Amino acid sequence: MKTKNLTCIIAFFAATVLVFFTTASCTKEKTIIVKTDTLVNDSLLSSVSWEIAEAIGVMGNTPLRYERGGNSNNWNVAGDYYVFNKDKTGYMYDGVGSRHQILNWNLLKTNERVKLVMEYQNDPALSYTSFITWDNLIYKNGGLHYSDYYRDAITGANYHGQAIRVPKKSAISIKNKGSHASLLFNILQLHRCSYAVLSFSTLL
């Protein structure tokens, strides 16, 4: 009787071990890849000219939107691009015949957050300059993503928006590279200083 019970116990133990190893051998390992954004540095910024792929914003009380190749644009910035020189100068060509000097620019880094601040010459003849900030500046999917704000020194209007810039002459192909850099936005409210609070999501 004891021998029979012992045999049953051994058989049960063997079956349990077999089930365990069979289950373990059939379990597939999952590899999780975490894709992080790339911090922007001086070398990246000065390596190419940067043109608009997509942008939204508010100038004064006027909502603005531009998407390269889009059919619902009310803001023509197709021809504008920025050039940042290694000596911390540069220029911005506005696409309508004027070139605006960037008198100086600097990248400010705090706790893995990057901000670009530049002094932009609105009108050389009148010596008007504006201080432009590109905040939360990151590089991903081949483009610069940022929020920008400034006060136009000539008109006095405040601007606040978001944009994606890519190396010049590559903006048309940005969606074909799988980034689907489409900004969905909702203007929540206008403040007294004519800024807008914008909520947006980037489709990856």
Tell me about this structure.
This protein is mainly beta. The chain has a single domain, classed as Lipocalin. The protein has two helices and twelve strands, in the order αβαβββββββββββ. The chain has helices spanning 2-26, 42-45; strands spanning 38-39, 49-59, 62-67, 81-84, 90-93, 99-110, 113-123, 128-140, 143-151, 158-167, 183-190, 196-202. Strand 6 and strand 7 (113-123) form a beta hairpin. The longest helix is centred in the first third of the chain and has 25 residues, at 2-26. The protein is globular, with a radius of gyration of 27 Å. The termini are far apart. The model is unreliable at 17-35 and 171-204 (pLDDT under 50).
Radius of gyration: 27 Å
What would you call the shape?
globular
Instruction: Report the structural category.
Output: mainly beta
Give the averaged pLDDT, no decimals: 75
CATH topology: Lipocalin
CATH class: Mainly Beta
The percentage of residues in β strands lies in: over 45%
Helix % is: 10-25%
Q: What is the number of helical segments per DSSP (H or I, 4+ residues)?
A: 2
Enumerate the strands of the largest sheet in spatial order, edge to edge or round the barrel: 2-4-5-6-7-8-9-10
Number of strands: 12
What is the N-to-C order of secondary-structure elements (H for helix, E for strand)? HEHEEEEEEEEEEE
CATH architecture: Beta Barrel
- Terminal CA distance reads 68 Å
Strand count, sense and closure of the main sheet? 8 strands, antiparallel, barrel
Which stretches are poorly predicted, pLDDT < 50 over at least 5 residues?
17-35, 171-204
How many domains?
Answer: 1
